[in-house]
Write a structure and sequence with these properties.
This protein is α+β, with helices and mostly antiparallel strands and 651 residues long. It has three domains: 3-65 and 615-650, no CATH class; 70-290 and 569-604, no CATH class; 439-541, no CATH class. Helices cover 43% and strands 21% of the residues. It contains eleven helices and 30 strands. The strands form eight sheets. Strands 21, 22, 25, 26, 28 and 29 form a six-stranded antiparallel β-sheet that branches. A five-stranded antiparallel β-sheet has the order 12-19-14-15-16, with no helix packed on it. The radius of gyration is 41 Å and the shape is elongated. The two termini are 25 Å apart.
Length: 651
């Protein structure tokens, strides 16, 4: 090849180098741009006289500086950071809400029980009873306000999930189009359209910040993008669409699924991890639901236990107390896929605060039985159907099943989910506040022994029809037999001494034991001392209990009583535990987010060390290619001069 051709090849190669370097400089600040370098190789030499003469150079490739391992490291760090930042942005709202001493629940709880104690101390006055009702309404408003704010946060999560899914679909569509363009321009895999590859990688990076992606290389430089546990999002030039829909069992909750035609197939929330979407879903199921359920557990537990004790009291009119707070009904979500011919109806009412949990439940009908499964640990309980003996109690909730179910019917049950919202005061009449006890006891002055009887209390059995006292019961001690007689006919008597209980059949006399607890028909008393023969002890209906405050004292005692979580925690400590959980979770996520941002910076630096543009290096390359261009031009100039010399020799 002539010297002129050699110079020309060098000139063209230098020109490509200058253009590539200029392209790098121009795109130095473009997100996702990867530095490009010119790869030159020598052209095939020509043999002449037993040796080979070089024929110049050619540009074999414009190479994109890209490291797949470092890029995947960066993607992993970015999706984790995006997830944690998304989680933190949400959970910090709850933390700020609960940390506010003026809007938190603790002050309202304390004020309510102070109102109970004041009313107990002044049982005969309307003013103290009115103040008790007022503090109860304030407490109800506080429960409702906290729950409303949590609902607002939930609505915000729904909106962000919808917006994020829209963005994901947009990125997936663009990636599919770029896959198509890149495949069409890729004839030789070594000569790929680098700028299009960068654009696609940048889209994948942005998509990965929304939801964790897995990328697999395909033919003709295409990429297959999947999410979750392998669900495809982009295959070649085809993209699949995600969509949002209302939960099958809760219309207030947005879920994510695949859109196929006019149908949406829901995806498990756990399948969509990482990124902003994963952070939102994890926050909702791991923090928001728990906070709302635990707040509801305090509300439901307080309502159920206060009502239970209030019903054991007597109001100012002499009647047994009713509900002080409205009953808390469990949220029952009917699965929209249940059979159209099913008429099954499920209801649940919180009755036993000590057995209540903050877990959600699934109820399924298998064609024969209803099976209730606790979500927290998978424990299953069979509910009797049909309920011939009345409602069935499970974990503090009384379930009533009616209608005709069909096999496959499914219900989601959340006993405490709406409890804070449903927490309301049922009473408006101060005279119906049951501060008195329904029974009174007496040891007549005519007794000659030293026997004493306690004031007495009643338990839930007292509310069983036929058990409530309508007339005095007189117990008589017989020193010859050492027994007490006079117990109501038809009621067994249980005597507990030294922790050992003994049941005596109705109609029999009961041996006297000093200090032993005696129970019959829901009445609980104890007689101590040494009664004399013929001494009597009476238990009678309370007919003058206007100033009696014994039940009020028991209502006030509920504040410090371990009732929730199986009788292990008070209302205050249960709420404090929820606040502590949210605070710890917020701190944990904040620390994790800070660490994740540091990991992103480290991974980005490593990736940019390979793919990033160094302007100093590019400036040096400009000079190098400029010199090569000038030198190649000089070669061509010399070749031209030599050619002219040859022509002149011919003349």
């Amino acid at each position: 090849m002539s010297l002129l051709s050699i110079g020309k090849s060098g000139l063209l190669a230098a020109q490509v180098g200058l253009s590539t370097t200029g392209h790098n400089i121009a795109n130095a600040n473009v997100p996702g741009y990867s530095r490009q370098t010119v790869v030159q190789s020598n052209t095939t030499p020509q043999g002449s006289g037993g040796y080979f003469i070089g024929t110049g150079t050619e540009v074999s490739q414009i190479k994109r500086q890209y490291d797949d391992f470092l890029t995947k490291q960066l993607l992993g760090a970015e999706t984790n950071a995006a997830s944690l930042n998304s989680f933190y942005a949400q959970v910090s709202q709850i933390d700020n809400l609960l940390a506010d001493s003026t809007s938190g629940l603790s002050p309202a709880l304390q004020d309510f029980f102070k109102g109970v104690q004041d009313a107990t101390a002044n049982a005969a006055t309307d003013a103290s009873r009115s103040a008790m009702l007022s503090s109860a309404n304030t407490l109800a408003a506080r429960f409702q306000g906290l729950n409303d704010r949590l609902n607002e946060i939930s609505d915000g999560v729904n909106s962000q999930i919808t917006a994020t899914v829209t963005q994901i679909n947009s990125y997936a569509e663009q990636i599919g189009k770029l896959n198509n363009d890149i495949a069409g321009l890729t004839v030789d895999p070594s000569k790929a359209p680098n700028d299009l590859l960068d654009q696609r990688d940048q889209l994948i990076s942005e998509l990965n910040k929304l939801v964790k992606v897995n990328v697999v290389k395909g033919d003709s430089n295409t990429l297959t993008v999947s999410i979750g546990t392998g669900q495809p999002l982009v295959i070649g030039n085809r993209n699949f669409e995600l969509a949002t829909t209302r939960s099958l069992t809760d219309v207030s909750r947005v879920t994510v699924g695949y859109s196929t035609g006019n149908q949406i197939s829901p995806l498990p929330e756990g399948a969509l991890s990482g990124g902003q979407l994963g952070g939102l879903l994890e926050f909702r199921s791991g923090a928001l639901d728990r906070a709302q359920n635990e707040l509801g557990m305090v509300a439901a537990g307080l309502a159920a236990s206060f009502n239970a004790q209030h019903k054991l009291g007597q109001d100012r009119n002499g009647a047994l107390g009713g509900n002080f707070f409205s009953d808390i009904n469990a949220y029952i979500g009917v699965d929209s896929r249940n059979s159209d011919i099913s008429t099954a109806v499920v209801t649940g009412v919180v009755k036993d605060a000590s057995a209540l949990t903050s877990s959600d439940y699934d109820l399924n009908f298998d064609g024969t039985n209803y099976v209730l499964t606790r979500a927290s640990d998978g424990q299953a309980t069979v509910l009797t159907y049909p309920q011939t003996t009345g409602p069935q109690m499970v974990d503090g909730v009384e379930y009533t099943l009616s209608g005709t179910p069909e096999a496959g019917d499914h219900f989601q049950i959340r006993p405490t989910f709406q409890a804070a919202s449903d927490f309301k005061v049922a009473l408006t009449d101060v005279g119906k506040i049951a501060l008195a006890a329904p029974i009174v006891t007496n040891a007549p002055l005519a007794n000659t022994g030293s026997g004493k009887i306690t004031p007495g209390t009643v338990d839930a059995n007292y509310l069983t029809p036929g058990n409530a006292l309508t007339a005095p019961v007189t117990l008589t001690f017989d020193s010859a037999t050492g027994e007490l007689s006079g117990f109501p006919a038809g009621q067994d008597v249980v005597v507990t001494a030294g922790g050992v209980s003994t049941t005596y059949p109705a109609g029999t006399n009961v041996p006297y034991t000093d200090g032993a607890s005696i129970s019959f028909g829901g009445v609980n008393i104890a007689i101590s001392g040494t009664p004399a023969n013929g001494d009597t002890f009476t238990v009678a209906p309370n007919t003058g209990g206007t100033r009696d405050n014994r039940n009020g004292a028991l209502l006030g005692d509920l504040q410090a009583k371990n009732i929730l979580n199986g009788g292990k925690t008070t209302f205050q400590s249960a709420y404090a535990s929820m606040v502590n959980f949210v605070g710890n979770k917020t701190s944990e996520v904040l620390i994790g987010a800070s660490a994740a941002e540091a990991a992103v910076k480290q991974a980005s630096n490593a990736q940019q060390s390979v793919s990033g543009v160094n302007l100093d290096e590019e400036a040096a390359n400009l000079l190098r290619y400029q010199q090569a261009y000038q030198a190649s031009g000089k070669v061509m100039q010399i070749a031209s001069t030599l050619f002219d010399t040859l022509l002149s020799l011919g003349n």
